[in-house]
Amino acid sequence: MAERAGCCLPKLAPRLDAAEARRISNDLAILAHPIRLQILDLLAQYQGQVCVCDLEAALPVKQPTVSHHLKILREAGLITAERQGLWIYYSICCDAVQTMRERVMAQFAFLG
Q1: What CATH number belongs to 21-111?
Q2: What would the mean pLDDT of 92-111 be, rounded to a whole number?
Q3: What pTM was computed for the model?
Q4: DSSP character string of 73-106
């Protein structure tokens, strides 16, 4: 086993700059909540639109919590909303979800 002259690696530097690290952190934060993952899963099961009333009935939380998580997903561009009469229908934005997935996975390619 070769001995090292010191304890410090001479050229140790992160591969992510601060902006990219923040972007990945934000992506992971959006996906880090179980209700948001369940919403994305429900919307992914249906290629059409899903009424907010159906989402509320399927999830184990009350309406204000569902609305909060839907807002976060909309602001992230992962879902869209369309009002039809009294109800709002949600759809998943497959391209946006795929782009986020690729962005996150690209940073962790060294793990696999």
Answers
A1: 1.10.10.10
A2: 86
A3: 0.83
A4: HHHTTSEEEEEETTEEEEEE-HHHHHHHHHHHHH
